[in-house]
Design the sequence.
């Protein structure tokens, strides 16, 4: 099924390996400094930016140009699928596959099918919200080059990192590192892929 | 807490089916070669299966999604190899990227938005099990809102009991303030009063309906063989929360600890009263009797308390009780607000 590749080719495809550059990363200790710096870096013309933070920093999406999440639409689709599944299941069971007259009640009716329909709509939406969130984020994932930054573990604690990725057309390891320093980042490093 | 409580609640009906390994086919519409039958979707019992299992699933999702960023923090702070590996797997590779957070916040908002009506629906659907039957004392339209109010009431009381112990033992006084607890007590007061109003409405409707069976059911409830259970229920659920009209009572830890336990006892008796008193004098005199729990009933009940506490303590031991990322976000916001106010003062 999968094309035959050796591990080097896989790494090559994913942009992973000690010989490659993933990005230039720098650190901030305040979320507001991160947003301001992100805005300035973007104004310099960089487009492939990311940030890493221990909590959602408001304003960072607009500052570094991250579009609004598409998750809502995916979940709406799942909700409609859940609704139709529930109605279809109850119609198929009640009318087609296993019709039983109980107390003279109709085999299928919109009223008594509401509870199960509501529950399945919610269930499909919730599962899709979580799996969709993980899928859009590319998770679960065992390895990411940002781990090579020596202070990456601080990004889940109390530091805010700004990332200029190497696939940015304007990327140049020396110049980008200098740009990051110029907007106030400390601990600036060129990070291997 | 919801999660562990639902797991305990699942024990009773599962054992009640007699052959729980086959209950899977009886309860869920899964094509099988075992019973080759489908469920009857006109029955509230199957609605209940869907409501409770959806509730459990969504609770697990909400709980786990909320934990992902915090487990990533634990992973990065862990010093022992075993912890690093376990938390690394559980955190699914979370790295706190702005793209992650953008999708995460939407996902969490959707989950929270779905959970709220789900709480209302699960208790309404449970009440349909009773309300759509013909037994006097059960066959009432007030049941769905009445059960929802009772559920919020007892849920807050149960959270209160655990919260007071956790706050005291884990030293969380700065994070769970008296103000938080006071607000919870206000909700307990409101929902307790709604429950009391529902009791009064039930009695009134039993009289006003002119239905002799309803009248007998409620008169028998309050003055019959189970009068003691009825009055324990009323005093615990309706009278005890009225202390919360007084501000000093709402803010006193010993008072709220004792009252939260009293409310939980009262809500246990509410379920007992609804089930036992209606069934011991139903339309079939041959089934009349007086319910005495057997040793199996009592030990199952004690066992579920043990299961609940075991799961809860394991959770408190290994995972964060309070969302780390949320507290950090609130603190950063406050620091900035105060810093801005401070700067303003200099000008």
Sequence:
């Amino acid at each position: 099924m999968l094309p035959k590749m050796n591990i080097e080719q896989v790494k090559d495809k994913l942009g992973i390996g000690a010989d490659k550059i993933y990005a230039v990363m720098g650190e901030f200790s305040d979320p507001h400094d991160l947003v301001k710096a992100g805005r300035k870096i973007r104004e310099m013309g960089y487009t492939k930016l990311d940030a890493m933070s221990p909590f959602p920093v408001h304003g960072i999406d607009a500052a570094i140009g991250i579009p609004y999440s598409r998750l809502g639409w995916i979940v709406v689709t799942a909700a409609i699928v859940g609704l139709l599944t529930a109605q279809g299941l109850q119609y198929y069971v009640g009318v087609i596959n296993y019709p039983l007259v109980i107390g003279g009640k109709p085999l299928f009716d919109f009223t008594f099918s509401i509870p199960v329909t509501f529950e399945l709509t919610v269930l499909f939406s919730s599962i899709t919200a979580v799996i969709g969130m993980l899928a859009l984020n590319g998770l679960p994932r065992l390895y990411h080059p940002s781990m090579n930054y020596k202070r990456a573990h601080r990004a889940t604690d109390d530091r805010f990192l700004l990332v200029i990725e190497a696939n940015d057309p304007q990327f140049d390891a020396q110049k980008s590192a200098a740009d990051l320093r110029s907007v106030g980042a400390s601990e600036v490093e060129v990070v291997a892929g | 807490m919801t999660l562990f409580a639902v797991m305990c609640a699942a024990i009773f009906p599962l054992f009640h089916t007699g052959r729980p390994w086959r209950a899977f086919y009886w309860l869920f519409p899964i094509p099988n070669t075992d019973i080759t039958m489908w469920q009857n979707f006109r029955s509230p019992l199957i609605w209940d299966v869907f409501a409770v299992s959806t509730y459990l699933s969504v609770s697990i999702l909400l709980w786990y999604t909320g934990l992902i960023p915090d487990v990533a923090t634990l992973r990065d702070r862990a010093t022992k190899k075993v912890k690093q590996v376990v938390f690394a797997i559980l955190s699914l590779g979370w790295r706190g990227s702005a793209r992650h957070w953008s999708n995460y916040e939407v996902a969490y908002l959707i989950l929270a938005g779905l959970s709220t009506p789900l709480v209302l629906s699960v208790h309404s659907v449970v009440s349909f099990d009773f309300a759509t039957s013909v037994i006097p004392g059960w066959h009432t339209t007030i049941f769905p809102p009445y059960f929802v109010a009772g559920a919020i009431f007892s849920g807050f009381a149960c959270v209160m009991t655990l919260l007071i112990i956790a706050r005291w033992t884990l030293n969380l006084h700065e994070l769970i303030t008296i103000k938080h607890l006071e607000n919870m007590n206000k909700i307990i007061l409101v929902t307790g009063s709604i429950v009391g109003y529902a009791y009064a409405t039930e009695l009134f409707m039993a009289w006003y309906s002119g239905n002799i069976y309803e009248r007998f059911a409620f008169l028998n409830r309050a003055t019959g063989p189970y009068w003691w259970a009825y009055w324990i229920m009323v005093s615990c659920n309706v009278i005890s929360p009225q202390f919360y009209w007084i501000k000093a009572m709402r803010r006193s830890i010993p008072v709220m600890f004792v009252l939260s336990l009293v409310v939980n006892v009262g809500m246990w008796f509410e379920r007992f009263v609804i089930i036992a008193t209606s069934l011991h004098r139903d339309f079939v005199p041959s089934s009349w009797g007086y319910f005495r729990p057997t040793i199996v009933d009592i030990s199952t009940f004690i066992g579920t308390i043990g299961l609940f506490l075991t799961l809860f303590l394991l959770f408190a031991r290994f995972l964060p009780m309070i969302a780390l990322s949320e507290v950090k976000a609130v603190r950063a916001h406050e620091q900035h607000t105060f810093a801005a106010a401070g700067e303003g003062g200099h000008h």
